[in-house]
Design brief:
CATH class of the largest domain: Mainly Beta
Strand content: 25-35%
Distance between the termini: 40 Å
Number of domains: 2
CATH topology of the largest domain: Tumour Suppressor Smad4
Helix content: 25-40%
Largest sheet: 6 strands, antiparallel
Number of strands: 11
Length: 186
Amino acid sequence: MYRKQLFTAGIGVLGVLFALVAVQSGFSGTGRFFLGILGAMVFLWAALTLYFEWRAEEREVEKMSWPASPAQGRRITRIDLINEEETVAASWDIYEKTCAVIGRDYKENQVDIDLGRSEYASLVDIHHAVLNYAGGDWYVEDLGSKNGVLVQKAADGRKYRLSPDQPCKLRTGDVIIIGLNRLRLH
């Protein structure tokens, strides 16, 4: 405990002792009552002060605490298209966005992440998938595409096929596979 908290706890204990002494004292009934109430109010003040300080500290610790794995807790701000040589073929910035459609630009149908010039563009639907940012996390959702969407999780390296219209939570380092295009999240 910090000194301020110890001091507040000490005042609370003194308030209880004051109330007990007031009740046992030789004062008249009204005097004992008011002194007892005063001691109880001092104790209540100390208890509430300690409680709210404890809650404030707990919230600060939650803000500052590091996540269990390095990939968790960092907001995804960039998506890289990775080619066969494991180099970046294209990159898209999604910082401060809340939604990004993945697909192919075709006539007036424009998308945020255009895979129309990638090696495997023929396997990508015009509107293939969507990324949504909600509650501090990014999610990917298959928009009912012909070839589907897979997510390779950085945590275990396994690939998971998404069901249409079922969002999947993403973390930094995960790879979204659309057609045979691999999109790594940073």
